[in-house]
Amino acid sequence: MPQHFSNEDYLKGIVLFGLNAATYKMALAKILLEAAKEQKNKIHWSELASSFFQLYKSRLAEKSMPQQGIAHRQTFMERIVQQHQSGKLSESDAIEQVGLKGFIDVIPRFQTIGTNKDIVKEFFYEFQYGSTLTLKDSLLNLSSAQLAELEGEIDARWGLLEGAFSINQSQYHLANDIREIYLQSGYERKPLTNNIPFLSGYQGNICFYCAEHLDSEIHVDHVLPRQVLQHDEVWNLVLSHPECNLLKSDRLVGKHFILKLIARNENIMGSNHPWKAKIAASLGTTPKQRAANLQKHYAKVSTVLGNNYWGGCDSYNPAIDPFYKKLITVLNNESQSI
Ligand SMILES: [Zn+2]
Questions:
Q1: I need a labelling partner for 108 at 20 to 30 A (CA). Which of 79, 255, 272, 338 fits?
Q2: Is 211 exposed, middle or buried (0-12, 13-18, 19+ CB in 10 A)?
């Protein structure tokens, strides 16, 4: 005998079952219930984006709990809200970004119970991506008592997910504050390829990460990931093979690369290059200050990125890295311990 479930059961199924990688389903469910409450059968994309943004903005302002489960990462919505709160993104720009990228996964995937995509396919709404979402009677016919009950369950589930996500993220608030500070003084990405000729000589004309010769294709890499530092200051830029850059990705480098970066920066300081002044302004006027300040940045970024760590290419060994044998490196680091 086929079993009969109510529309309310199906909606609970969507929200309560399945492994949620993030809290997006809860946010969308709340927006759908709100529209049903107002008996609104069409939601335009811009309204959807606006509601989504406002929901996360108030949620994160209130409690600031992680919205996804992988330690040291952020959801798109957390990044957007943080950029807005630090004054880097106006409200209308933030909403526009949400409309463009905030729904890529959740709108098409919402109508799934667990991993089953057929039971509730197009059961509650249809959508034209980027244009409108049309609610069906299955939502519009829910009684106000049912809507209230569902809303309560969604709120409880959202809180439960945040609690589960925060277990792996003991430094969440500290990491968030550090991101925020970097965000405030950060700026938009600049083209970096014009730095290649300048940087090459100071790092011994070899790849920073594997110490092999550079080929024709060269990547400019942020040693401490740009997603945290939010700037392209030269003290943090090195050249690498595209493959080495991809291997490293957004991970935290091992300590030996920080010591190498300090030595590389001293090579620039030892020259009369005009960018000397920029490095001095950012890191300090003496080698000791610069080393200490760079280590401070490394410690902060470590707090944000945690154990998302990259020790280097297998073949790399700092003890035989030709960089340390180059004349400029030897001269500039003579008085310092490496
Ligand atoms: Zn390399």
A1: 79
A2: buried
Task: Report yes or no on 2 lying in a domain.
Answer: no
Tally of domains in the chain: 2
If you measure from the C-alpha of residue 248 to the centroid of ligand 1, how many angstroms do you get, rounded to a whole number? 10
Range of the domain at 44: 7-170
**Tokens coding 280:** 């001095």
Are 122 and 234 in a shared domain?
A: no
Euclidean distance between CA atoms 124 and 126, whole angstroms: 7
Going from the Cα of 253 to the center of ligand 1, the distance in angstroms, rounded, reads 14
How many A from CA of 199 to the centre of ligand 1?
15
- Contact criterion met (CB below 8 Å) for 213 and 205: yes
* Residue 76 belongs to some domain of the structure: yes
The Cα diameter of the chain in Å comes to: 85
- Give per-residue pLDDT as tens, 142-186: 999 999 999 999 999 999 999 999 987 888 889 999 999 999 999
Are 264 and 236 in contact, with CB atoms under 8 Å apart? Answer: no
Using only C-alpha atoms, the chain has a radius of gyration, in whole angstroms, of 25
Distance 197 CA to ligand 1 centre (A): 17
Q: Enumerate residues with CB within 5 Å of ligand 1 (an ion).
A: 207, 209-210, 241, 244
- In the reported structure, the alpha carbon of residue 315 is separated from the centroid of ligand 1 by a whole-number distance in angstroms of 10
